[in-house]
Amino acid sequence: MALFTIEEYQERIRKTKTSMSEKGIDVIVVSDPANMNYLSGYDGWSFYVPQVVILAIDEDQPIWIGRGMDANGAKHTTYLSHDRIIGYADDYVQSLIKHPMRVVAAEIKKRGWQTKAIGTEMDAYYFSAKSFIELQKQLPKAQFRDANLLVSWIRIIKSATEIEFMKKAGKIAERVMQTALDTVAPGVRECDAVAEIYRTQIRGTEAYGGDYTAFVPMMPSGEKTSTPHLTWTDHPYRTEIAVNMELAACHNRYHSPLARTMYLGKNPPAKLVDTSKVVVEGCNKALEAIRPGVACEDIEIVWRKVIARAGLEKESRIGYSMGLNYPPDWGEHTASLRPGDKTILAPNMTFHMILGMWLDDWGFECSESFRVTEKGHETFANFPRRLFIKET
Amino acid sequence: MALFTIEEYQERIRKTKTSMSEKGIDVIVVSDPANMNYLSGYDGWSFYVPQVVILAIDEDQPIWIGRGMDANGAKHTTYLSHDRIIGYADDYVQSLIKHPMRVVAAEIKKRGWQTKAIGTEMDAYYFSAKSFIELQKQLPKAQFRDANLLVSWIRIIKSATEIEFMKKAGKIAERVMQTALDTVAPGVRECDAVAEIYRTQIRGTEAYGGDYTAFVPMMPSGEKTSTPHLTWTDHPYRTEIAVNMELAACHNRYHSPLARTMYLGKNPPAKLVDTSKVVVEGCNKALEAIRPGVACEDIEIVWRKVIARAGLEKESRIGYSMGLNYPPDWGEHTASLRPGDKTILAPNMTFHMILGMWLDDWGFECSESFRVTEKGHETFANFPRRLFIKET
Question: Do B76 and A230 touch (CB under 8 A)?
């Protein structure tokens, strides 16, 4: 049972074919699990083996090709006719002699597409260098085109149902952040706090459940707040330290990230307190600038001006398009809120704006997930924006 | 602070260089996060952007190259001299015009390696087709060699400390499976059961914590037990259904998976009960056959003979080498217990043997993680092998 109506999938297929046509692509081979899900509904943790969704410009339905044991999973989760679900034999899996892309190529030949312009997602996760070389070797007469992000760019504007899923994720994210604030304390082991966070993420609410997030909880503390992507340890939290909490919730694979920082102790450093105020002001101002017609780079300028007044600067981007996704990233790799990105905001684009300052031996972060509305923005979670302090 | 002694890392480097020498590789560019961790100690959820560890055959220490904001993470987790940790500017991240592999190529040129034989992991996760093409374009005089699994094959035999981590994961895995058995019940939402499982995974024990696992909990129920890789929903468990539970625990990135099946109800189908007995007997017999000197394919034959007597057959492999890893797979992609795999078992190889029968509309699975000992095998978890039945 696919999660969206047939009409919604058909609309996605139609937009994908329009983009293929503009780029001169006859057949697209989609490997990115989020793009596979978007076009077919397929949802399973099987992207650790090669699998694809193939869409031909003159066909109505894509084809799913994956490991034999996952074909039943495709029957359960997609709207595809069962004759368009093709499983390959298990001796292709992590074989040192046979590559699953040979099955993909054989299917392409069987359908007479071997001389067509074939698009592949050249920089997608789970489409390896070897996968591409195998396809080239098996299909010497095909013209290969880079279709990287072709489907991802269509995903940038969400439908009403997608927005509903992200709002649900946002409500779970509020509970997740509250769990973190309640649980993290001096003497508590980092793993025990993260355990409660996971529990809240997956339980969801009484009305609907939570799904796994494309990033694990990022909870660096103390001097590790100077870098964003370390995970937890089993050491207890100390006192007089900051804890960055880059968290999220997910519902039906749609995300709503949310980041805050908490200080444990009575004496937060003045520079942390001061920076937190500037960052929150920058976040507020950047969010207020969101509306249809504005370019992504202009949002970043609003932020940059606020922090420049306080003598701060930030090299990294301040946000990115996100929504439907699988590990290792909830970001869509399309629009970013950063200098040079001229993408024009439009209603129902959805972003994670993350204002993180990671300095030499401390850091502060504050983020919001939101959609662009007709007149401005709407955040998916409703949670105070400030430095939290737990005077233990 | 790297988790192993400098001597242990030096031994890994020495073995890697021996293998490079045998394969005529002067410089290896490692992208697989587990292989990066193995050679450098690096541990962070940053593999969603291109990052590498480079080892030259005539140098003692590798180089880490990653995103600028993760360089502090590399300083925290590796044993590398800080001058061998190189961060790239943030405008390379998910850029439509600049690729991070240009930074990698520039570093290779700077060190005079641009005409060397350069090994890349052609079928590794997180080394995209585009990454390889960019490297080729920037280094036209290099001779590229496929170094896929070169480091992974060295990882196949674990050190005493690695085994200790896996044993710790095994003790957590016992608690995880018990949590599943205690929690899954008719009327309980799947997400609420999985929430408790996650909580137990991450809490670990009183003495040490748990880490995120490379797969999420796999918990298909009812007719979905016919396929292994669907994740949970927010529907309540029904009665008179089977629930497959492919779970795991992780400690310091080292895994110990464990799978069992539970039937909810008073009337388990005879074919499920019968199959469970055959599968458990096959599992027991295959484990008893484990000892140094035996080939992987011979273990599978033992299993196949047991189930053949009951008229059953299984196409897919029955196990694979595993240990240190990151999403999306705890398997190492080297040795598999399957026909044709002539890898000879040796002490401190570690496997996940998973006997799963996924038939048309139901399934049963039973697995063990173990190490090969001097005389046989030792499982990391100690948990009864049978079909569990909850008469609700």
Answer: yes
